[in-house]
Amino acid sequence: MSDSPVSERIKEYVTRDDVVLFMKGTPIFPQCGFSSVVAQVLQHIGKDFESYNVLEDPELREGIKEYSDWPTIPQLYVRGEFVGGCDIVREMFESGELQQLIAGTE
Amino acid sequence: MGKLAALIETKLQSALAPITLEVIDDSASHAGHVGNPGGDRESHFHVNIVSEAFTGQSRVSRQRMVNKALAEELKGPIHALSMTTRAPDEA
């Protein structure tokens, strides 16, 4: 992890909102199947979330991978903590853990 | 099995000593996708892994273990990798 400006910016993003998604495209126009799944899951849960389109921001796209030490997009953060990518979000949604985590009852 | 799928299998075998390992080449269903224009390139994979190495590990650390084993391929030929990771008592 470096102290470059992009990591500062990411830190600000993931702490400003409770639920933050870094994705390819937007929730309305996702540009990747994996990003689409996570956006749909979050919409289904119904809690407000903030999303950032990494395709519009190459610095963010590379920066987020370094920030979380995670090689792929999408990436979900809840209350500043990295939760995972598409597989993890899907598994946690199916088991009910994600709903609990987002509701803050965990 | 394609060359890349075989390589993924070999690397995961040596890194995680899995009890069960299934490498599914899903590339054909992504034909026309930006990472695989003609649908004929090995690019999209799903792996099912059961390994003792996952016991007591969080989902994130399990996936990190897999990503680490395939770090080189994830930088290049692998466009997308999804995975199911289970410890033996969860299988």
From TrEMBL, chain A:
Q: Which Pfam families match?
A: Glutaredoxin
Please give the SUPFAM superfamilies that the UniProt record associates with this protein: Thioredoxin-like (SSF52833)
- State where [2Fe-2S] cluster binds: 32
Specify the Glutaredoxin domain's residue ranges: 19-83
GO MF term list: 2 iron, 2 sulfur cluster binding; disulfide oxidoreductase activity; metal ion binding
Checking InterPro entries in the record gives:
Glutaredoxin, GRX_PICOT-like, Monothiol_GRX, Monothiol_GRX-rel, Thioredoxin-like_sf
* Sorted UniProt keywords: 2Fe-2S, Iron, Iron-sulfur, Metal-binding, Redox-active center
Does the keyword section mention Iron-sulfur?
yes
| PANTHER family assigned | GLUTAREDOXIN FAMILY MEMBER, MONOTHIOL GLUTAREDOXIN-S14, CHLOROPLASTIC
Family the entry assigns: Belongs to the glutaredoxin family. Monothiol subfamily.
Report what the protein is called. Glutaredoxin
Q: What is the lineage of its organism?
A: Bacteria, Pseudomonadati, Pseudomonadota, Alphaproteobacteria, Kordiimonadales
TrEMBL record, chain B:
The UniProt entry, under InterPro entries, shows:
BolA, BolA-like_sf
Tell me the first and last residues of the signal peptide: none
Q: Which GO terms describe its biological process?
A: iron-sulfur cluster assembly
Family as reported in the entry's similarity comment: Belongs to the BolA/IbaG family.
Protein's UniProt name: BolA family transcriptional regulator
Instruction: Name the source organism.
Output: Kordiimonas sediminis
